[in-house]
Amino acid sequence: MTDRSDVPADTTAEDDVFEQKAVRLAKRERLIEERTDAAGGAYPVAVPITTTIPALRAEYGELEADTRTGARAGVAGRIVFSRNTGKLCFASLQSGDGSRIQAMVSLAEVGEESLQRWKDLVDLGDHVFVSGEVISSRRGELSIMVSDWRIAAKALLPLPNLHSELSEESRVRSRYLDLIVRDQARQTVLSRAEVNASLRRTFSSHGFVEVETPMLQVQHGGASARPFVTRSNAFDTELYLRIAPELFLKRAVVGGLERVFEINRNFRNEGADSTHSPEFAMLEAYQAYSDYNGIADLTQELIQDAARAVAGSTSVTWADGTEFDLGGDWDRISMYPSLSAAAGREVTPATSIDELRALAAEAGIEEPPHATHGKLVEELWEHFVKTGLERPTFVMDFPVDTSPLVREHRTEPGVVEKWDLYVRGFELATGYSELVDPVIQRERFVEQAKLAARGDVEAMRIDEEFLRALEHGMPPSGGMGMGIDRLLMAITGLGIRETILFPLVK
């Protein structure tokens, strides 16, 4: 006989699950054998529900203890708690939103045979339909005194321990279990839906039109990022998963759709960490006859409206209990002056690359690959300034060579009218006064192509079709892009893998 104490805990758990599955499979077979019609058995096509658990709680949630209503209801839910006694069985049925109701299966109401079938066939995790009178138990718990019941879906695997926290890895790999057992997981999904609905309402109030642009593109562009590459058999050509919708949305503005936005997926073949995911939801918007100041005002409004939709105010509470205020008018600082103040020496667009390299070396900053003036300035800024930004802050006026799609600053040579919005120390959104001059845009693309030829996999290519569109005339415009996942991070305080329902995991 094997001494089970010598078996590793994980092996013991696997054996237990295997044994439970075997028992549940046998119950499934019995349900199939006992069915009286084609729709019955372990997985019937439908059950005759008359209402939902949330609706019952809304109507009868304030019943006094030991009250009978005389009202009858038929509901279904997943069993998350069960206790069987001699003549009375109790079960907690949970709906998709996490609300619960107690089912009471008694000998007096259902008879000996039905009570025994409940004890023999029903397990934790099963979906069960019950019908009967709505009552409040002696302990004041809203309940159904069951007169009829049936299995709605037999669970072949047991639920995890509802009193133990799932590890983060288990949560993201088995999100369906996370949604069953953890209120925060369900609430995050609901919050995300509320955020998206709020964004659409705010855009609609400003006359924006929601459009869709291609995710499969013959040429990647709109951002500096490494793309995913695939192939179309139908067209016999290499395609790219889009890294940004920007160049197509600008085509729409050229075509006369003066205020457009899109919420959709982007794909970037880069690293994954607490703020980056290879696949992520992105919002981009473009407004003709606006600029980066106007689009910053709109972005602040979008985020504050989203916070109100989720939290009821612009003061939000993160998952760890921290209070964070997204209200008021947000600070706007310039990149070069803020870097100069933090580094203790003046840094301007005229500062040589050798001086920037020396400053980076002094600060212990590793030089980025294919270093340019702009890349070094941004690395230095992140080192000296970024970590000190707690409140929402628009960081304005970036180096020209790192922003090939942005208009040059109207008064300051060597910088462009671009901002990045930082919240909680991470970049949440970016905005531009858009570059609409096709001649200058071609020059910028040529410079990017030179970087690509030197091995920079994030550099943009020359997009002739986009340039042709610009040559037909694009009005002066403001544009912005914001990660939906990161917006949820700012409102909830969660990591990026928690804000994505089904994140990519290795």
From TrEMBL:
It catalyses: tRNA(Lys) + L-lysine + ATP = L-lysyl-tRNA(Lys) + AMP + diphosphate. CDD domains: LysRS_N. The gene is lysS. Binds 3 Mg(2+) ions per subunit. Coiled coil: none annotated. Belongs to the class-II aminoacyl-tRNA synthetase family. Homodimer. Keywords: Aminoacyl-tRNA synthetase, ATP-binding, Cytoplasm, Ligase, Magnesium, Metal-binding, Nucleotide-binding, Protein biosynthesis. GO terms for molecular function: ATP binding; lysine-tRNA ligase activity; magnesium ion binding; tRNA binding. It is found in: Cytoplasm. Residues 192-503 form the Aminoacyl-transfer RNA synthetases class-II family profile domain. Gene3D superfamilies: Bira Bifunctional Protein, Domain 2 (3.30.930.10), Nucleic acid-binding proteins (2.40.50.140). It holds the Pfam family tRNA-synt_2. Its EC number is 6.1.1.6. Its cofactor is Mg(2+). GO terms for cellular component: cytosol. This is Lysine--tRNA ligase. Mg(2+) 1 binds at residues 420, 427.
